[in-house]
Design a protein that fits this description.
Blueprint lengths: L4 H81 L25
């Protein structure tokens, strides 16, 4: 069998088509890989920003909780004292008078 230039061109054209097909497949995989990388990077950045916002909200809530707990304890202590003083027969003080005393003199009031 003798190869003619026409037959040789057919083989070269077949190799050229295979290379083009392989190049397109490699290029497609590369484009998909870059797109996937960009999507993953964007997703991670968004999640990082969301986590930062949630941490800030958590800190604000902790401060608010501490403030409200202190306020609740203060209100409960006054209520507890008022509730405990009523059965004992205590009455509210209307006027307070202070006595000046020297270190040598003591005063007792019954």
């Amino acid at each position: 069998m003798v190869f003619t230039p026409h037959h040789t061109n057919h083989l070269v054209a077949g190799v050229s088509r295979s290379r083009r097909w392989l190049s397109l497949v490699v290029l497609g995989c590369l484009v998909l890989g870059v797109a996937g990388y960009l999507a993953l990077t964007n997703s991670l950045a968004t999640k990082g920003y969301t986590i930062k916002e949630l941490q800030q909200t958590l800190e604000e809530m902790k401060v608010t909780t501490q403030r409200l707990e202190a306020q609740a304890a203060e209100l409960q202590s006054f209520k507890t004292l008022d509730d405990a003083s009523i059965p004992e027969g205590f009455v509210a003080v209307e006027r307070v008078e202070y006595l000046a005393a020297t270190p040598q003199v003591g005063v007792a009031v019954k």
